[in-house]
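#help-structures

NK: newbie question. if I give both the sequence and a SMILES, will the prediction place the ligand too? trying with pyridoxal-5'-phosphate
OV: yes, paste both and it writes out the complex. here, I ran yours:
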Amino acid sequence: MDTAINTTFPIEIHKSPVSHISTVDFDQLQFGKVFTDHMFEADYIDGKWTNCTIRPLSTLQLHPATSALHYGQAVFEGMKAFKTTEGKVMLFRPDANFRRLNESCVRMAIPELPEELFMDALFQLVRIDADWIPNTDEGSMYIRPFVFATDDFVGIKPSDTFKFIIFCCPVARYYSKPVRVYMQEQFIRAFPGGTGAVKAAGNYGATMMPLMEARKRGFDQMLWIDGVTHNRLQEIGTMNVFVQIDDTIITIPTTEGTILKGVTRDSCIALLRDGGYKVEERDVTIQELIDAHRSGRLHDAFGTGTAATVAPIGVIGYKDEEYELPPVESRKASAWLKHELWAIRKGIATDRFDWMWEV
Ligand SMILES: Cc1ncc(COP(=O)(O)O)c(C=O)c1O
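OV: that's the protein plus ligand as structure tokens.
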């Protein structure tokens, strides 16, 4: 066992005697299927976070009545570590993910995580598994912190005990082709007053059935429509959506509480404005989108998210129509944005917004 580093939440470190990194083909990484050697784990018991440990990644033993499995008190985050061209290990905006995780916790009646615990756990784990961060152009390490209720109790009440875990996956590019998204008004992802603005596990469970339907029709993801008017764009499966109509880049406001406040979304708005693009946060209706497409004014559309970064949309499906977007090579905004983000993360462009944290 290595020594505990910080004082308030000492972390016991048990390193894996052997690494399985040599068994991994880094040229064929499938997103979310390869895991690094270690994980972080802590328990919330008697009102305190305790048992903080980094240990070899392994399965969990859970009671069949574990309340998260039945009543869904579970929240998560998705963030990334990068290696710069000089080999420095950097995290992208971990403070933003920390804040959002706690917003999710508050909404789901889960105790908030102390910042010291979250950051120490994250930095130590990333340091220990830093060799797993691909050095390639589009490679990175996806990091999954999550918290879930562990009371073994049958009955609806907030759990008294929780687990906080972090594990990591080396990843490559998420989409190799422009994304085909599908819009429909029947199934709704989130409502005002619901949990759409946080990363509650159940939000995603409820999207699987409509997604399966969309996949049968040949689409990759849903482009969700709002549940109040049934005609406004919301967001894509795990991405916020941007469209360029004429020379304005528009993204959907997050004020209604139905859309996740993407860290990439926020970063893209800042970059675009800094780069002289005109950006508006306002609603876009299905009709406005279709009209813009028909009149040749829809020049670009893309999703933004940690996993996919900036993903151009190739086709938008609605009813029995497919609205095809201009070829990716002709699109300026999404290509420029993707390059800018990449250059900051790789340490090639100046980190002018102080987004990168060295590990
Ligand atoms: C529903 C949803 N919207 C948007 C995003 C994009 O957020 P971020 O850029 O923070 O990854 C995600 C991914 O976390 C998501 O799950």
